[in-house]
Design a protein that fits this description.
single chain, alpha/beta, Rossmann fold, Helicase, Ruva Protein, domain 3, 4 domains, 5-stranded parallel sheet, about 15% strand, ATP-binding
Length: about 475
Amino acid sequence: MNKILVIDDEQMIRFAFEQFLKDEGHMPLLAQDADVGLDLIHNDQPDIVFLDYRLGAGKDGLDLLKELRKDAPAIPVVFMTAFGAMDVAIKAMQLGAYEYLTKPIDLDKVRQLIQRILAGKRSIEMAETNASSRDYILTSGQMVGKGPAMQDIFKMIGLLTTQNITVLITGESGVGKELVARAIHDNSPKSNKPFVAVNCGAMPENLLEAEMFGYEKGAFTGADTQRQGKFEVADGGTIFLDEIGDLQFSLQVKLLRVLQERTFERIGGNKSVQTEARIIAATNKNLQEEVSTGRFRRDLFYRLHLIHVHLPPLRERREDVPELIRYFISKSNMDMAKHVKGVTEDAMKHLIAYDWPGNVRELENQIKRAMILSRDDVLAEHLFDLRADVDRPVDMTSLQRLEGITRLFFTDFLTSPSIGVSIFDQAVGAVEKTLIHEALRQTRGNQMHAAQLLGIHRSTLRKKIKDYSA
């Protein structure tokens, strides 16, 4: 008969586990706090431990888990909590938890978990148990999610922080790929080294090559001094290559060499430069399709695809929307010095039902916008402008749409023979004036709220209004 220890300060939880374990043919051991739990572990040597995060006064579950990894590293520990925060999940997995469950506990899942542990068929590799290399401070608490999809992501982050391997993160625009990359870095031994982000689709090939690998003095016109590239800046830390699917083919060859040999040359140089930067790449494209069409190197794909983390779109994890709303309201309350308490029931239903083509980024922007426009401490449904996004393709952001519209306009604008020499100032002024006018219209002329909506200082807005009113 297998002995299974449950450490939880809630009597009803212990009672439910006791009845369940007896029915399953196991011997239940029950403890209401850390001290009793430790005694049972030392005296009875259970086969599995189910450990709650909140244990009342004294030690919490993380403290006890840390002790267990030292004193009884061979005992699988399943961590439980009603608090589905990312930092708890990551910390538990870093400390060597076998699995992480959120309450209310699904007993069918517990049954399968016990069977898997006892049969030795583990689906994930337990992190090593050297506590001295694990006691990292969490510095990135931006990710939120209690649903199973995000809990799996948190557990994966916890495992990846201890391994210096290449990671590929995929998902639609706005799902939070850079947040995952930062969480991996911030909770790793490299956290005191630089985290450097490079957008591979944001600049022309020659500029991107100089940005990534640097250049020697005199390498091209204007190269008056030697410059380090991002790989050198990130040495010993992490380099995050966003939109890797947009990387030009010639640069894919150079990146492949970095992955294989950890060396490269600056533009205009022939001296090999070593880099110990960990590479985390991200894309919203299907790289396998890009490989099949010849737009992405097959060998580079397999090098990047060593560990794959896929972030689901928000419409596939609607259960996380209420918690995300609470998080963004709390964050915006601090940023805006407001005291918004939440959203109305109708607004919550509307926000949960919406498909969020812009994902978490769009939700955050909608919360910010509603808080700027609201005069109450509860956000009503009419403050959320979701209709404009209904026809937007899932993988396009608002900025990309704006770029597409302005590109069409500027094509004619640039070829007009009557423009004159101040074409740049005229174009920028026209766009800026329209944007300011619309922000003031939406905020009913409130300059402070309009400045917040635009993301600029109020004094800057006042100056712009004065300039365009002259």
